[in-house]
Amino acid sequence: MEPVPEDWTRALAIVAHPDDLEYGAASAVARWTGQGKTIVYCMVTSGEAGIDAIPPERCGHLREDDERRSAAVVGVDTVEFLRHPDGLLEASIALRRDLAAVIRRHRPDVLIGINHHDSWPGAWNHIDHRVVGVAMLDAARDAGNRWLFTDVGEPWAGVRFALFNASPGATHHVDVTDTIDAGIASLREHQTYLDALAEPTDPDAFLRGAAAAAGNALGLPAAVTFELVGL
Predict the structure, then answer these.
(1) Nearest to 25 by CA among 61, 71, 62, 66
(2) From its phi and psi, is residue 166 left (phi > 0), alpha (psi between -120 and 50) or beta?
(3) C-alpha count within 13 angstroms, C-beta hemisphere, residue 118
(4) Dist. CA 42–CA 61, nearest whole Å
(5) Pick from 218, 216, 204: which is nearest to 27 by CA?
(6) Helices marked H in 2-80 — which ranges?
(7) Is 165 helix (H, G, I), strand (E, B) or coil?
(8) Hey, which of 39, 63, 161, 212 would disulfide with 18, CB 3.0 to 4.6 Å?
(9) CA angle, residues 168, 172, 176, in degrees to nearest 5
(10) Cα 151 to Cα 63: distance, rounded to the nearest angstrom
C-alpha cells in the first residue's frame, strides 16, 4: 500500500454528514494543513435527522456548530453546508449541479470523501454515503465540462484524484503518527452526536485503536487508509 501523494496544494472534502470526516480522515487532514495545504469542507446535509431525541429543526443547527469547531481543530477554516435533506439523498442532477458548483468555486487539486461502497465490514453502508461518493466523482467530471451547469461558475478540470477514507478497497495510506491527537480532538467536538449514541464511544480509544491497527500492517505507529480514484 503506497503513501497518498502529497504534491498538491488544495483539497475539497465532500461528505454527507457532520462527523463523517472525523472518524478517521481528520487525522490526515491535520497532517496536510500542517504542511500548508488548504482544505475546505462541504457537508451535503446538516445531519438533522441523525439523532432520534432531537428534532431536526434544532439538531441541524447544533451539528453544524459542532462541525465548524471540529474543522477548526485540524486547521480547516471554511465549512459549507448544502442543506440537502438528511437521510433522503438521491443521485440526482440537482446534487451533481450543487457539487460541481462547489468544485468550481474552490478549484481543488484533490477531493476527499469516505467509503461510498455498499457496505462497511459487517454492515450495510448508509444510503447518503453511497450517493454522495458517486455524485462527487460525477460532479468532478461535470465541473470540467463547460457545456454543463453553465450558470454555476467557470469550468474546473484540475482535480487529479479523489480519496475515500475507510474504503474496503483501500489502496493508499497516510502516516498520522504526529496528528492522531488532533484527529481525536476533532471528533470530540461532535459532542451532540456522541452524547446521543446508545453505546458510549471513546474517541481516543476508537481512533487510536483503528490507526494503530492500520499502522501495524504498514510498519507505522499510526495510519489511516484511503482508496485513490484517478480523475
Answers:
(1) 71
(2) left
(3) 0
(4) 15
(5) 204
(6) 25-34, 56-73
(7) strand
(8) 63
(9) 105
(10) 30
CB 114 within 8 A of CB 76: no
The total of structural domains in the chain comes to 1
CATH value at residue 136:
3.40.50.10320
Reduce the DSSP state of residue 121 to 3 states and report it.
Answer: coil
Give the whole-angstrom CA distance, residue 97 versus residue 143: 9
Instruction: Please report, rounded to a whole number, the percentage of residues in the chain having pLDDT higher than 70.
Output: 100
C-alpha cell at 9: 496544494
Give CA 207 to chain center in angstroms: 15
Please write the tens of the pLDDT for every residue from 222-231.
Answer: 999 999 999 9
Q: Which of helix, strand or coil describes residue 136? A: helix
C-alpha 91/C-alpha 159 separation (Å) is 20
Q: Are 32 and 161 in contact (CB under 8 A)?
A: no
φ, ψ (nearest 5 deg) of residue 71: -65, -40
Residues 6+ apart with CB under 8 A from 19: 47, 63, 66, 67, 70, 187, 190, 193
Query: Does residue 184 carry a pLDDT above 90?
Result: yes
What's the whole-model pTM score?
A: 0.97
